[in-house]
Structure formats: C-alpha cells, structure tokens
Amino acid sequence: MTTIKSQQIWVDQQHLANTNVVSRDININDLQQDEVLLETDSFGFSANNITYAALGFKMGYWGFFPAKSDNDVDEAHGFGIVPVWGFATVKASCHSDIKVGEKVFGYLPMASHWVIKAGKVAPHGFSDIHEKRKSISPVYDQYIRCAADPSYNKDREAWQLNFRPLYMTSFVLDDYVAEKAKGEILLLSSASSKTALGTAQLLKDQKASRNASYKVVGLTSTSNVDMVKTSGCYDEVYSYDDLNALTSDSSNSRYWLLDFAANGTLINNLSELLGDNLSEVTLIGATDWKAEEKPNPKLLNAEIFFAPARVKLRQGEWGHEVFLAKYASAWKHFAEKVSDQFYEQSHCGTDAITRLYLETLNGSSPTKALNVVTFD
User: Fold this and answer.
1) Tens of pLDDT along 324-352?
2) How far apart are CA 17 and CA 7, in angstroms?
3) 3-149+342-374 has which CATH code?
4) Do 108 and 114 touch, CB atoms closer than 8 A?
5) Separation of alpha carbons 130 and 190, rounded Å
6) Superfamily for domain range 168-306
7) Which pLDDT tens digit goes with each residue over 74-116?
8) CB neighbours of 214 closer than 8 A, spacing ≥ 6?
9) Where are the beta strands (DSSP E) in the chain?
C-alpha cells in the first residue's frame, strides 16, 4: 500500500469548540530525501493541550502542524491542529539512519499519520527540521528513540504520555527555583494540576538535601483540597476561598508565587493580601484559560518561565544523555509517589477523540484520568 489515509482533528482557531474530522492522503512514494512518515500509536491529553490551543497565536503553537487544504500546499484558513505528546512508529523512511518500525516519543499533531523531515540524527533521537514546521523552540522538535530512552517503560506508557511533557517542565522549573530561592514561602496556584504537583514534589523532597529553608504551599479550589493534601507533595494546602489563612502566622515572610493558572483576579487578590511581601511572581501555565482577567506581566513585574529555554540550557551544560538520566531518576521517584492517585482511561477513534477534546475544553474531564488516546 503506497497511499496512507491520515485522519486529522482540526480545530477552529477562533472558536475552539468547533472541530472537523478530516482525511488526507499521504503517498509514500512522494516522500523526499530525509522525510519520514510517522504513524501515531497513542498520545495523552489534558488541560495542557487546551492551553496549546488557547495560546495558539500568542505563543506560536498553531505553527507546528498547519492544517492543509486538499492541494496540500495552502493552509486551511481558520483551522489548526492541536499539538499532543505521544508515541509514534516509523511507517516509512527516506533517511538512511532511521529504520521502519522504530518507536519514538515526541510532539505530534492530533493526527493518525504525519510526515516530518529528519535532521540532527543521533543515537538518542532526531529532530523535525521540515520547512513547513514553524517551531518556537528546538526542544519541541525532538523525537526521542524509545530504545535509547532511560525513562521509557513499556508498562508505564500511559504515565509517560500524560506526565512526561508536564513533568519535564516541573523538572527544569524546580532546577530554576532551587537556584534562586532564598527561604521564601513558595505558593503554587492550580496545585492539583500535573505540572504543579510535579514541581511541588521535587521542591519538597529535595529540600533537606539542598539544606533549603523554603516552604512549599499549594493553592487550589475547595473541591481539590483533599486530593492535593493526599498527594504528599506540599507542606501546606489552602483553598482559594481561604487565602487569608496564609498570613495567620507568617506576617513577615516573603512569598514567591509560581502561577500555573493565569487567573489575573487570583493574582491581584494575593497581591492585595500580601503586599510587598509578595516578592516574586513567575508565570508558568494557563490552566484557567477561561479566566476573564489575565495577568499582566509588566504591571506585576512578573517573569514568564519558558521551560524549553531551561531544557536547552541544561542539555547544553550537562549533555543530552546526562540530562535524560537525571530526568529519568526524578521521574521514577515521582511516579512511585503518586501512582495510586491516577487511573488509565482509553479513548479510541475520531469520535472519542473529539469528545475528549470537548470535555477537556469545557473543564468536565476527570482530573485523575491518564488519557490514552488512539485512532484505531
């Protein structure tokens, strides 16, 4: 068979609740030098992927996998393909160092098949250097060879699909905070989110070995307080409705907000409550992407943490293999700590994928589910 049907989920870039299921033909005989056809095995899906869509124009996420019209040249006006993280198998290859059947992990489109152009090929993986891919960071372009990945575990694929990209942010954010922290009370908003949980676990569990004096405090909705406390990742947990309790016995403390929610009202409330004691604000994510008021980094004197930049820095300083080994060690410890708090949930076929996307968009998908998504 020389022609492959690529099933693709397209999203209206201006009205995110509008979706189309589109089929595009890919002729294997048309592959050019160094091009590789990837077949999506499975991918994870969570609020993180909705953030990619919500910030698609602002951060450039729509540029990775442009939706193409029937002629495969012009972009489909107004529609895009949401990026996901997943496993894929090489279906066809025109690169001498990439073999058919090889399994990789990386940044994929919400599509059953996709053509990339392989470059920077190394034992640990390769990158997509296709001219159609408008990348915002080389970190997003890397595909890791599972056979050479120290953190890959066939029996834990659901965890890697759903946590790896998020825990990678946690891993480098912890590294960044540990380098700068001076005994502050670290406030993590959206404390039940996977990225915040991972960051909190790393900060708390390494506090003693770092001889650090900071405190790790989670802020979350009332309905999630018990779940966040049970995780054991935080020193203390407070609901958004009980922020006044933060200052009950620490009026002279300095606070550093690590914001994963992007809810301007919450940040303003904290700023009013803590005043000058809120010494730093770092913006990381946007779990509350529907919030009517967004934070203004300039007014808040806040910094924006871009994880790929920190990944690139540490990969350059440590080397790729050492970086992956350090990450794998941290990841194993985290997965063991919270393994009983999540469950796997399968979604198969374009109807199920669209339904999961819309449920996550509306905030009705279970937060404890590790979604394993397949096209067939």
Assistant:
1) 899 989 988 998 888 888 999 999 999 99
2) 19
3) 3.90.180.10
4) yes
5) 36
6) NAD(P)-binding Rossmann-like Domain (3.40.50.720)
7) 566 799 999 999 999 999 999 999 999 999 999 999 999 999 9
8) 181, 183, 184, 185, 186, 203, 207
9) 3-12, 19-27, 35-43, 66-68, 75-80, 83-93, 103-109, 113-122, 125-128, 142-145, 185-188, 215-220, 236-239, 255-259, 278-283, 303-304, 343-348, 369-374
